[in-house]
Design brief:
The chain is of the alpha+beta class and 262 residues long. It is 59% helix and 9% strand. The protein is elongated and about 70 Å long.
């Protein structure tokens, strides 16, 4: 349901020789073509790239990378493993300037590399500014663009890697928060069908966010679709009970009571 629309020039995806996608299936694109890395020797440099992005992608210490990726190695041995895989990564992307190494720190050069999470967060930052300035339509467009990029949690294929958790949780939290804002902006405009689609999308990512269910119920209520609103309540009740062993809050129960008494 989310579309990119027309964006200001300064936040459009620039043409880069190397493009890294982490919010869908992991993909590395070079010169417009996906890079295949099926060989075992290519897996380590790709993991190095993923960890580098997970740690911010800028001035990440070599020691931090070796500690999380190859904790069994130490000293010169650790540096040797790192150096080999940094060299392989540079060969894989085809541009040494894309991956800088200076003073023991690694940086992905944004002049040569596009990383989807960087644009995702930048779009949401712009949306924040637009909301503060009262430019709601622009904010909605920016959030829609960011949301359209978020198909899956960050590096979903590395779900067992603890080094990806921090950024994954941060990005998911931002997605839920801003998509929730988008749904409420649609509510303000009485565009309840769009609001419903938006809240549903957010619930798919975070099925335990009770506030989203409340808004979804109220949207159905405003459209006179009482039965669907009650289904939303029962779905929430079931998932809270099975997952957390609790009932919906008194606020949610009050919304349900209004629906039943109508």
């Amino acid at each position: 349901m989310f579309s990119s629309g027309s964006l200001p020039v300064d936040i459009k995806e620039r043409e880069h020789g190397i493009r890294v996608f982490t919010l869908s299936r992991f993909n590395l694109v070079k010169g417009g073509r996906p890079v295949r890395f099926s060989k075992k020797t290519q897996q380590r440099p790709i993991t190095l790239l993923k960890a580098l992005i997970a740690l911010g992608g800028r001035e990440v210490k070599e020691e931090e990378l070796t500690n999380i990726l190859w904790p069994e190695t130490e000293g010169d041995s650790a540096h040797g493993v790192f150096a080999v895989n940094l060299h392989r990564l540079r060969r894989l992307v085809g541009n040494e300037k894309a991956v800088n190494f200076r003073d023991g720190k690694v940086t992905l050069n944004s002049r040569y590399c596009y990383v989807d999470v960087w644009l995702f967060e930048r779009l949401l930052g712009k949306a924040d500014t637009a909301l503060k300035d009262g430019r709601k339509n622009e904010a909605m467009q920016l959030i829609e663009k960011a949301a359209s990029m978020y198909s899956n949690p960050f590096l979903q294929d590395e779900h067992a890697a603890p080094w990806a958790d921090k950024l994954r949780k941060r990005l998911q939290s931002k997605f839920i928060r801003y998509v929730g804002k988008l749904g409420m902006l649609y509510e303000e405009k009485d565009e309840f069908e769009k609001a419903i689609d938006t809240f549903k999308k957010a619930i798919e990512i975070d099925p335990l966010s009770e506030g989203l269910y409340q808004h979804l119920m109220q949207c159905f209520q405003r459209l006179g679709r009482r039965a669907e609103a009650l289904v939303v309540y029962n779905n929430l009740k079931e998932i809270l009970s099975s997952t957390l062993g609790v009932d919906p809050s008194s606020q949610t129960a009050a919304i349900c009571k209004i629906l039943i008494n109508k």
